[in-house]
């Protein structure tokens, strides 16, 4: 099947213009936000998007706003040409790849803001490129916080992560203006945070969570897997394997969360990993439970060498 | 001139449907968010909206999210029928009055959120009416924070005010989907916060700030003026009068902010008011200055009895 080449848009004004134009023709837009270095998990989201909308937009943007200074922003893998090849191979293709350079650069003029006092003071104080890390009074300073859901699990070890995610997703929603947006369940806490944000801020966007895609041996697909050594790659299987065993045990009646968590932690540590957290939480509120009596999700984050991986499994009781 | 009666919409889904319908016809929408009990200041915003868009939507909603428990939510004045009469008297009229009952009630089902795990757990956990003050794991918990601009001036004495304003304006923008929105300069800090938020979150909305409308004796129009006793009403003139004197003094070369602020504080206190703050700040960054060398705004908040009033004057140097 010969697939179309996606239109590459790098400018947010152009992106918005494209969306408005398509909307005015009555077309619906499905949106898959990514940080690039695409794998089968992303491709599954793109395929799913085709089922929900006339047109599909994929964004590729490594968002500096969700990394803290000590994290792996500088080494986050990228391969824009490879990404576009992969997207072209998706049945039906992708209509637009939105690949902005810097979403926190507000430039020297700001068309969305009109200063009607006529003071003329703006020109002198505009400072060109503005990064989200600056704080000179004109830099980015608006953050969307989903205050309770962002606190636990990944929020504990990555304190600015979810405010960065919620903020950039808000920006992307406002630029791309989609009808439907798709997020993978591998980032389970992120999915719930985005769903809550969409409800609380009244975005007219339907959020769809898509199942985790795994390698044939069970490792959850992640752009960060590329950084694992062969040995770490083998050790990392301890996450999905111990989670699977825990799910089977729970389904057989072992509903004590302390014991289930201990077994997962032990398995990962024995394999050579360092557990960041292992938590069994309500699927919607993400509140930790002591016994499994209703649908929960077992979430794990663990380090293998310098690579931090996350994974989870839903247990539906 | 016989003016049309506005359509009254109370449901956010209906509001959005109206906007989408109008947009699909190529119409532009101007939006004036208010808390009702309209005065000439609001009417000036509505008239200005007519200059910028084909259609005008006015929202009337007293937002609980911006009041702290000790503040005057319960006594905030309202008069929806009077408001509609006033809007009908505006030349050209108003197309829609959006008057929702509770923007933080997410009901028992949430069309924007699809739980695709098929667990069926949602129905049991949904809790009917959800207020922004609840914290049972399903209540409103997403807040938009403009972190630096919200800290000073009114933010000092009203700690949740601006996050509440930024959040409800985000909600209203997502529901009403306007091209242009108008805010009065009386709430100067609010205007700058909304402008910054719109820039930082990439809303495709032009923000226009409109000049303060004053009573003939100089008192800035405010819905809260109705709570002033005749004596307090007279005392309150000390704000606008002392600000005017300060502006004239500055224009004549008195640029020392400490002295200018002291003269305003003294005038208000001698009249019987209690000053919350008196600050001279940069018009855009709202950073306090020591000497007036560039465009500033002199902002004041003061109590007269149980009524807290704000006012400001721009000084363009």
Question: How are the elements arranged and paired?
Answer:
Two copies of one chain form a homodimer.
Chain A: E1 7-9, H1 12-24, E2 29-34, H2 40-50, E3 55-60, H3 80-88, E4 96-98, H4 122-125, E5 142-146, H5 154-157, H6 161-176, E6 180-184, H7 188-200, E7 206-210, H8 230-235, H9 237-251, H10 257-271, E8 274-282, E9 296-304, E10 307-315
Parallel strand pairs in A: 1-4, 2-3, 2-6, 3-4, 6-7
Antiparallel strand pairs in A: 8-9, 9-10
Could you characterize what this model shows?
Chains A, B: One of its GO terms (cellular component) is cytosol. Two copies of one chain form a homodimer. Chain A has ten helices and ten strands. Chain A is an alpha/beta fold and 317 residues long. Chain A folds into two domains: 7-103 and 142-210, Rossmann fold (3-Layer(aba) Sandwich); 223-315, Pantoate-beta-alanine ligase, C-terminal domain (Pantoate--beta-alanine Ligase, Chain: A,domain 2, 2-Layer Sandwich). A six-stranded parallel sheet of chain A has the order 1-4-3-2-6-7, sandwiched between helices. In chain A, strands 8-9-10 form a three-stranded antiparallel sheet. In chain A, helix 6 crosses helix 7. The radius of gyration of chain A is 21 Å and the shape is globular. The interface between A and B is large, with 68 and 68 residues. Strand 5 (142-146) of chain A pairs antiparallel with strand 5 of chain B.
